[in-house]
Amino acid sequence: MTTPATTETPSVIEHLDRGPLSMNEVAGVIARDMPAGAYANLGIGHPTKVADHLTADRGVVLHTENGMLGMGPKAVGDQVDPDLTNAGKVPVTELPGAAYFHHADSFAMMRGGHLDVCVLGAYQVSVHGDLANWHTGGAGDIPAVGGAMDLAIGAKQVFVMMTLFTKTGEPKIVAECSYPLTGVGCVSRVYSDHAVIEVGPDGARLLETWGAPAAELAERLGLARSDQQTHR
Amino acid sequence: MTTTYDSVDEAVAGIEDGSTVLVGGFGLAGMPFDLIDGLIRQGASDLTIVSNNAGNGEVGLAALLKAGRVRKVICSFPRQADSYVFDELYRSGKVELEVVPQGNLAERMRAAGAGIGGFYSPTAVGTPLADGKEQRRIDGRDYLLEFPIKGDYALVSAYRADPMGNLVYRKTARNFGPVMATAATTTIVQVSERVPLGSLDPEAVVTPSIFVDRVVQVDARSYSVQGAR
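Output (structure tokens, whole complex):
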């Protein structure tokens, strides 16, 4: 009995007829990849935009950790009710079939592995899926973690939504995070303006790129993936 | 046995200096404003406050902090756009802070209320918040030992109470209320409505009366929500 010496390398999809994605477009890509019928939590900030791209026929049920399943869109005008907010404390609405619950139950839904997907922002993600998104570690910065650490280790899949590079051009996918960690080996995919990148025990792998070939991005990110097949 | 009071001041009487007080609410939703204002008038100081946040603007918990009654805050998310009262006290060393991940905060109070002496949680493994905690591998996964947080008092805001002290809540204002109600020696609840015996559906009671010691009805208060436009 022998095993093949090499396994087939999955191909990367390159979108070269356009530039990088806007964060709103990144939200659309995450919505595209969200499993139908998933129970999902969208973190504060950019990830909340994913909700705008989820159509009802997908059957995705949104969880907000302050105690609700079946969260609807942001409340406007008379819909604003101070007793009904999301985790970012923004007024939201409820959909038919919504359920309310207390905090211990809400976090049992995550920690207990019942939540299918959570989408979080990040300062840095390591190639092995370590997440840094709660604290810059700067002197005088008041630490505040909220539900970030519970979410990071709780959902079956953790998607990170972020720009791939800092404002000064440094990669946010790194060999080891320099910021304090939120969770270890917890991220499965990074959705960014330039690329979708799988991370995990086997390292980082580009799955889809926008505005630049995979080889060029791999070079900028310091990833050794010259063996990747590409099609255009 | 639940006692219903006619005034907030009676409901918060007897809270001693140095007490640990669990304060419900997530931001302003479910914040027991009237009980906190009563606590400020009552005068107890050197308090340890357990709550998700550390106050917004200058109302509720922020007002209690501003009055100088708080020695320590145990919370998950002190830093917010409008948490300037806490920020100033923390930076000048006038209040201690223990940051606890939100789910651990809830579960540590749940454990206290359920008589559990400690539990292993996977949250925060490998992070700075694991420092000093016992780590144990169970069935291939790493966990940290977490201890209960028990309150001397809990201040909770609910929607309706019957004369027994059974409670229901309203929307996401429920948040920490049901957990905190179980975790304190004395649970004090402000409600928007008192309803007759038998009018709450027993199938839908969220906090059974056994967890409730004192109830007081308060007038509905309008408050703006952070992020509201």
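The CA atoms of residues 99 and 113 of chain A lie 18 Å apart.
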